[in-house]
Amino acid sequence: MNVGITGLGVYLPKKRMTGEEIARIANIPVNIVKTKMGIDEKTIAGNDEHTVQMAIWAAKEAIQHAKINPKAIDVIIYFGEEHKEYPIWTAAIKIQEEIGATNAWAFDIQLRCGTAILAMKLAKSLMHSDENIQTVLLAGGYRNHDLIDYENPRTRFMFNLGAGGGALVVERDASENIVYESDIITDGSFSEDVIVPVGGTKQPLTPFLLEQGLFRLDVTDPEGMKQRLEQKSLDNFIKVIRNSLMKSGFTESQLSYLAMLHMKKSAHDYVLKVFDLQDENSIYLSNYGHIGQIDQILSLKLALEEGKIKDGDVVTLVSAGIGYAWGAVTVQWGKQRG
Fold first, then answer.
1. Which residues contact 52 (CB under 8 A, 6 or more apart)?
2. What's the whole-model pTM score?
3. What is the rounded distance in angstroms from the CA atom of residue 228 to the CA atom of residue 323?
4. Average pLDDT over residues 300-324
5. CA distances (Å), origin 93, targets 5, 61, 77, 178
6. Which one in 75, 131, 244, 253 has a CA-CA gap of 20 to 30 Å to 48?
7. Alpha-helix residue ranges (DSSP H) falling in the chain
């Protein structure tokens, strides 16, 4: 049984925040923002561009691209962020309603910025376990830039957070854009390094905490996290890519394109170098920033529009999310290989 991508959708807000603006607000040199952090500009959501709403707009584009009736969708998986319109709310059911997928059932999943890879793995697994599931919609939105305090140096590595929505339609017995195997690593030693410290059961949100701005993301042990992450992060990036390729029956030399999340430029270049790839084998998202779970889908769409992916190319989507989680999934674009 093959599972293939038949629809692809991305929604991006028109508003942008430039590297110069970030530098000014954060009081850091602009060349650090542009060169080291890799941010020329990033997407910023407007007042009406809410997290799940952006997922809905992306989902409608993906459905149109797949040329299917929404009533043909069997399952909807929301893979976007928990920072959304309401704090306790099943987003996938809202998406179901808005797109008219009256025959579907829906649920949310969460693995921070690694959730898109997890969603693809789950969609394929669901189809293997239930022959009645033919078509799955994956959709997510992201606007975690709301949670960044640019005057907090502990969160400097997250100054790239942007906004947008992304969606995929995947179908059973597809003959093109076949989704092969995935690989995911999680490491609980980082599980409480990056948190929003208030608003949960440990410290409920109060007017005082709200006034103090403590509802934003923070890093509990920045130096310790940096040291531990440097020892593991890039190695785990390489490991999940290699494992995904190997499980899928491809060699590293067959890899044609890496759809990577936005991270610092030196790390992006390092991963390409390990796999003997060039700049044209990926897209560095310096004009978009890090749109969380949406990065891989955005990279895939941009690459198709720019002609960087051709029929038969082996494409690996790779992610990382605070917590910490690393994931990769391999797709062969175009018609199914013989």
1. 78, 80, 84, 85, 91, 94, 95, 141
2. 0.96
3. 13
4. 97
5. 22, 18, 9, 27
6. 75
7. 19-26, 30-31, 51-66, 91-99, 115-129, 207-211, 222-248, 265-274, 295-305
Classified by CATH at the fold level, domain 180-335 comes out as Peroxisomal Thiolase; Chain A, domain 1 (3.40.47)
- CATH 3.40.47.10 at 3-174, yes or no: yes
In this structure, of 8-17, 68-77, 162-171, 329-338, the range with the lowest mean pLDDT score is 329-338
Residue 72 CA to residue 6 CA, distance in Å, equals 13
**String of DSSP letters for 96-137:** HHHHT-TT-EEEE--BTBTHHHHHHHHHHHHHHH-TT--EEE
Return phi, psi of residue 177, to 5°.
50, 55
CA angle 234, 236, 240 (to 5 degrees): 125
261-284: average pLDDT: 96
Q: Where are the domains of the chain?
A: 3-174, 180-335
* 338: confidence class by pLDDT, cuts 50, 70, 90: low
Q: What pLDDT score does 337 carry?
A: 57
- CA pair distance 93, 284, nearest whole angstrom: 33
Same fold, 3-174 and 180-335: yes
